[in-house]
From TrEMBL:
InterPro entries: Amino_oxidase, FAD/NAD-bd_sf. It comes from the Bacteria. This is Oxidoreductase. GO terms for molecular function: oxidoreductase activity. SUPFAM superfamilies: FAD/NAD(P)-binding domain (SSF51905). Residues 21-404 form the Amine oxidase domain. It holds the Pfam family Amino_oxidase.
């Protein structure tokens, strides 16, 4: 919260609107370059969409984000040095045609040795994508991911049984209307690392960014009503003078504050958390459901991936549905099949529905959308890049660099320390 005496004394070079990961990351980049920053956040807590609730020893992500260990931006963002990623088991487990197969975990030679030509082809295709420089990938013809999947001559079992559910989960887009270039970028990142989650819950990431900022940088409970290049007006805390303003809200709030900005379509997502009565003997695999007749996109025993998320002796199962909340009985019955375990005793801990979870990215889509509106006014967030944590962080770095250029401050040399990955 902000006191009025505090506000009267307050002035910063840059006012950032929004304390989601993009706003916090931008603050980190600017402060590291010697610029003074104030971050104003409407909600009671920082973190935006990356929120985690605690309940009876369980850590429940509101949104269940999947990160990857290959995300360069996690290593490039100051303040995340202490972030630990908990990786899923290699590749993904796909439930397709009534059986489960692991995909994306083997080299082509090993897949061949295991007797699966389809798996070998898939591993080879992923390997080629992993090796492709990003510029080459972004120069490929662009259409929807669904059309690209149909045209690439892959066997139906690979295209529809594995890649379709994998891409739907990575893009949070069940119809695969996303740009094929963005889909290729997502597959490339998948192929280069391991899917992972932050230890302790999604909120660990913004919490660490916020904790590494100087005291009194972030002010929560402050809703911004209007912005100009040198001034921000809030609903209840007066005005803030500054040299530049950076909007780091979601796409809709950004367009409300800057009416020239486009409001994209959105994908909606529902996340369900179940606690099992006892430990569920299941590894830390991400399990994809390839049967579109059922509502589940992907599910995992999150406590097997990150043991800090459940109390001893219980397991936490987190399930993502790409759409509105389905009847909970339907989900429970599908989970019983997917986990080959009775779910009668499972306790439903939470259902989180986010109607505007992520902005849609249909073709033609520029994953490096401009972040400088004009000198003094900038915008960042997942709607200016890919609709991911990685995209939000990268847009924040691009926007911070645009501010520094306009201030005449030299850009910092790139640093890429390795991020700790838990075994
Ligand atoms: C259900 C769901 C699943 C997801 N799954 C994944 C995934 O698997 N992998 C992945 O990488 N990403 C995923 N994402 C996307 C990822 O969470 C977002 O891309 C990222 O968190 C966006 O961060 P941001 O800072 O751009 O925006 P936000 O987190 O939306 O932050 C914007 C902040 O601005 C504040 N604000 C808005 N208006 C005002 C105002 N007027 N004044 C002051 N403050 C204001 C908001 O309160 C908010 O805190 C998912 C998101 C959801 C919702």
């Amino acid at each position: 919260m902000l006191t009025s005496s505090h506000h009267a004394a307050h002035h910063a070079d840059v006012v950032i609107v929004g304390a989601g990961v993009s706003g916090l990351a931008a603050a980190q980049h600017l402060i590291a370059a010697g610029v003074t920053v104030t971050v104003l956040e409407a909600a009671a807590d920082a973190g935006g969409r990356m929120a985690t609730a605690s309940a009876d020893g369980f850590r429940l992500d509101r949104t269940g984000q999947l990160l990857t260990t290959a995300s360069a931006e996690l290593s490039r963002t100051p303040g995340l040095e202490a972030l630990t990623l908990r990786p899923f088991a290699p590749g993904v487990l796909v439930h397709t045609d009534g059986r489960q197969l692991r995909a994306g975990a083997l080299t082509p030679a090993r897949a061949l040795a295991s007797g699966s030509l389809d798996q070998a082809r898939l591993s080879a295709a992923l390997g080629r994508l992993a090796a492709l420089p990003e510029e080459k990938l972004l120069a490929r013809p662009e259409r929807t991911a669904r059309a690209a999947l149909r045209s690439r001559g892959l066997p139906p079992r690979t295209a529809h049984g594995v890649l379709r559910p994998l891409l739907s989960a990575l893009l949070r887009d069940p119809e695969l209307t996303t740009s094929s270039r963005v889909a290729d970028l997502a597959l490339r990142t998948f192929a280069r690392g391991r899917l992972a989650v932050p230890e302790g819950g999604a909120a660990a990431l913004p919490d660490q960014l916020a904790a590494a900022l100087p005291p009194d940088t972030v002010h929560t409970g402050v809703r911004v009503r209007s912005v100009a290049t040198n001034r921000v007006t809030t609903e209840e805390h007066g005005t803030f003078d500054c040299r530049s303003v950076l909007l780091a809200t979601g796409a809709r709030a950004a367009a409300d504050l800057l009416p020239g900005l486009r409001v994209p379509a959105f994908h909606e997502v529902t996340v369900l958390h179940h606690a099992t009565a006892g430990p569920l003997p299941w590894d830390g695999s991400l399990l994809l459901d390839a049967d579109p007749a059922w509502p589940v996109s992907h599910t995992a025993v999150m406590s097997a991936v990150d043991p800090t998320r459940a109390p001893a002796g219980r397991s936490l199962v987190t399930t993502t549905v790409l759409g509105p909340p389905p009847p909970v009985r339907t989900v429970a019955s599908r989970l019983a099949r997917l986990y080959e375990s009775a779910t009668r005793d499972w306790e439903l801990l939470a259902v989180h529905h986010t109607p505007e979870a992520v902005p849609a990215m249909p073709p033609p889509y520029d994953p490096r959308r401009p972040v400088r509106v004009l000198a003094g006014l900038y915008v960042c967030g997942d709607h200016r890049d890919t609709n991911t944590v990685q995209g939000a962080l990268r847009s924040a770095r691009r926007a911070a660099h645009a501010v520094l250029r306009d201030f005449g401050i030299p850009l910092p040399a790139p640093q890429e320390p390795a991020l700790p990955v838990a075994a």
